[in-house]
């Protein structure tokens, strides 16, 4: 099992969460909530209002999201879904645990108790330079006050 941190449309209550609970795509077990240890710019960009975490450590905010434990099948699905490695790149990042529900071995419990876990995160280094000038968010909600409604793939 791998640990994945999601900060956008795959979170609970967001438009693509349905994929996280579709066992035909693999297994994803909610472990808890967290935020990036380092600051990153989280922007909403493009004509479909997609949330992107730009891989510029030290700029922006501590981005809030959810931590999941996923099997290999779900990780392969997420790679494909996220357009990895062209649109997003999957990298390991340190995530501060805000709330932990995960159950697992001693190593997992120790990591959660220490407050920081390593997770795969889909961020991007391949973006138009003007995106750096967009507003930075610390958390994403598709129907947030930013007024930039996410456009589902099936509606594009």
UniProtKB/TrEMBL annotation:
Chain ranges of the Gamma-glutamylcyclotransferase AIG2-like domain: 4-105
Pfam families recorded: GGACT
Positions annotated as active site in the UniProt record: 82 (proton acceptor)
Protein EC: 4.3.2.8
Top-level taxonomic group: Eukaryota
Keyword Transferase among UniProt keywords: yes
Reaction catalyzed: epsilon-(gamma-L-glutamyl)-L-lysine = 5-oxo-L-proline + L-lysine
GO annotation (BP), single: modified amino acid catabolic process
Enzyme class per UniProt: lyase
A cellular component annotation (GO) from this entry: cytosol
Keywords on record: Lyase, Transferase
Matches recorded under InterPro entries: AIG2-like_dom (IPR009288), GGACT (IPR039126), GGCT-like (IPR013024), GGCT-like_sf (IPR036568)
Any GO molecular function: transferase activity
Family to which the UniProt record says this protein belongs: Belongs to the gamma-glutamylcyclotransferase family.
Role summary: Catalyzes the formation of 5-oxo-L-proline from L-gamma-glutamyl-L-epsilon-lysine.
Protein's recorded name: Gamma-glutamylaminecyclotransferase
